[in-house]
Design brief:
572 residues; alpha/beta; Rossmann fold; ten-stranded mixed β-sheet; six-stranded parallel β-sheet; 40% helix; globular; binds pyridoxal-5'-phosphate
């Protein structure tokens, strides 16, 4: 085991993220944002990029999902033992919260790549004797508690994280803020970068905002208003105190409320959205800032099923660290692609039976849908006209769902309950399961095992979406609304299929929504194109599977993404 001090020998990019999904055993993530952060760090380790990640320990995880007999989501804490997986580092720092000193410590996890690259991930923790009992819980629940709890977590992440890097001796080249949760770190940097001014009356000039900007890169992840944290100034004053003068804070973070996105925008020299369209939509949301786009990816080695991995190893050696080689997928014989997928499908069907008792048929076209259960993702859209769906899909389709609703998202929970109740209508004619407790393990079994990956969000609210990339890597074509990454990955009938009209939205507040057209197109394409292709033209279907790998997965991965961050953001 390398001594942690070795990590401090070279300057690094410090990647701050509220959540990180590295493995299922470390439950410090809730969904897409965290998995992206984990995949980012894994690709960075493969590529031997000098980085260090900073996140929260989330001792109680996000939550474990189960269902009542009525199909209502129930939540319980995930207890895990950090000391079994992580190494406690010997130095601590302090942050001030509500005028109290709060001690912060860090646990180290090493991401080891087969290439020999190793990167440190620091998990911040306030559960330390001497901290008051309430403060010891600050790093317990990911996205739990109220606004004040969130603000305290963001103080620990942003300010505590920056200070710990310093006391541990890390040299930081750039700070990468993955979403606005860590924006308070800019205030810590502002204090570090103060410069003397000759005219002592010119307070503002002593605050060297350009030198902080030069250090910071900011990635925004959602065009949904609720996704951008903001805090009232009376709360900020009480909980955070006066770390910088209030007038300056209002200039940088908003007049009426402290908006964490605005703060990060104002103090970063490079800002990006996570897909081309999301860059444009964010640009409209924040006029006056230059917003670039770097499309998200997935870590190929993490998300290829063992079945596909064997094939790739045989026909496209070194694909995992050079995923561009997947462009040569046509070197793999059709039958072997089909058989590898059949293996992944059998593995999923076995899991479905273990968990739900339902026996799915390996010869039936199986559609998968799994992501956070929240209104704009419209998980229940396929059930808009159940009679019609039964007519099209009876005996020809099976549906697998999964996904958690945030504990306070009643609408999301109702959506799940509705889906779980569809079984009563469809019975054995069209099997439907909703798998509990979607997490990285479930995802890596579910996504490669279905035949078609469905996504029908309300446009333009899907910033990127990454589960569709995991599908493509495993030869599972996407059937999706044209939003997020799919606008870039979609070639109709070649890499998969679109749902609904071409994307024309440029802002999130357009009145038109295409739900009726989307539903109609969803049914029409299933009936006239997708079901016939699957059952009557296996060679044609395999061609689409191969194109998903060769024309989508070769590009939509975190290796390509990280090379772009290096050349377009970190080296500027
Ligand atoms: C990939 C992944 C997500 C993200 O899914 P989207 O389609 O981007 O919403 C969420 N949760 C888990 C567990 C994942 O693996």
């Amino acid at each position: 085991m390398t001594d942690w001090r070795l990590f401090t020998e070279i300057p690094r990019i410090a990647y701050f993220s509220m959540e990180i999904g590295l493995t299922t055993e470390i439950p410090t993530y809730s969904g897409g944002l965290g998995v992206l952060a984990g995949d980012t760090i894994k690709s960075a380790a493969d590529l031997k990029l000098p980085m260090v990640a900073i996140t929260l320990i989330s001792r109680k995880g996000y939550f474990r999902q189960s269902f009542s007999s009525d199909g209502w989501q129930e939540e319980s804490s995930v207890d895990w033992q950090p000391e079994e997986l992580l190494e406690l580092l010997p130095r601590k720092t302090l942050v001030t919260i509500e005028d109290r000193d709060v001690k912060v410590q860090a646990w180290l996890y090493r991401v080891n790549s087969p290439t020999g690259g190793t990167l440190p991930v620091l998990f911040l923790d306030t559960d330390i004797p001497g901290n008051n009992p309430e403060d010891r819980k600050i790093t317990d629940h990911l996205y739990g508690g109220d606004k004040e709890y969130r603000l305290k977590q963001e103080i620990v992440l942003g300010i505590g994280g920056a200070r710990l890097l310093q006391v541990l001796g890390f040299q930081v080249r750039k700070y990468h803020l993955n979403e606005g949760h860590a924006s308070l770190l800019t205030l810590e940097l502002l204090n570090h970068h103060r410069r003397p001014v000759e005219d002592t009356w010119d307070e503002r000039a002593s605050w060297n905002t350009p030198s902080v900007q030069e250090k910071c890169v900011f990635t925004t992840h959602t065009p949904v208003e609720a996704g951008h944290d903001s805090f009232p100034y009376d709360m900020v004053k009480r909980v955070l105190g006066d770390v910088i003068p209030i007038a300056l804070l209002q200039e940088l973070g908003g007049k009426d409320k402290l908006n964490m996105t605005l703060l990060a925008l104002n103090l970063s020299h490079f800002v990006n959205g996570v897909a081309k369209k999301h860059g444009e939509v964010s640009q409209a949301l924040f006029p006056g800032f230059e917003i670039h786009a770097i499309t998200n990816g997935i870590h190929p080695f993490t998300w290829a099923s063992p079945y596909m991995m064997n094939l790739f190893d045989e026909y496209l050696p070194s694909w995992a660290n050079e995923p561009e080689l997947l462009v040569r997928v046509d070197n793999i014989p059709d039958q072997e692609i089909w058989d590898a997928h059949a293996g992944a499908k059998a593995y999923l069907l076995q899991y479905i039976e273990e968990v739900t008792g339902e026996q799915f048929d390996p010869d039936i076209l199986t559609i998968g849908f799994a992501r956070r259960a929240t209104a704009y993702k419209r998980a229940n859209m396929i059930f808009t006209d159940t009679e019609h769906l039964l007519k099209i899909g009876g005996g020809k389709l099976q549906l697998v769902f999964a996904g958690k609703a945030h504990p306070q998202d009643e609408h999301g929970k109702r959506m799940i309950q509705e889906i779980r109740k569809q079984k009563e209508f469809f019975g054995d004619k069209l099997k439907i399961v909703y798998l509990p407790n979607y997490n990285m393990d479930v995802a890596s079994r579910l996504i490669p095992g279905v035949d078609l990956w469905l996504n029908n969000p309300l446009r333009p609210l899907e910033a990127s979406g990454t589960s569709g990339m995991k599908a493509a890597l495993n030869g599972v074509p996407n059937f999706s609304v044209l939003d997020g990454w799919w606008i870039e990955g979609h070639i109709e009938g070649i890499t998969g299929w679109s749902i609904g009209p071409p994307p024309t939205e440029t802002t999130t507040n357009e009145d038109v929504n295409h739900t009726d057209e989307d539903v109609e197109d969803l049914y029409a394409k299933l009936e006239k194109t997708i079901i016939p292709l699957y059952y009557s033209d296996q060679d044609g279907w395999i061609q689409v599977m191969k194109n998903a790998i060769g024309k989508n997965a070769y590009y939509f991965n975190t290796h390509v993404m990280m090379r772009r961050y290096v050349t377009e953001a970190y080296l500027r």
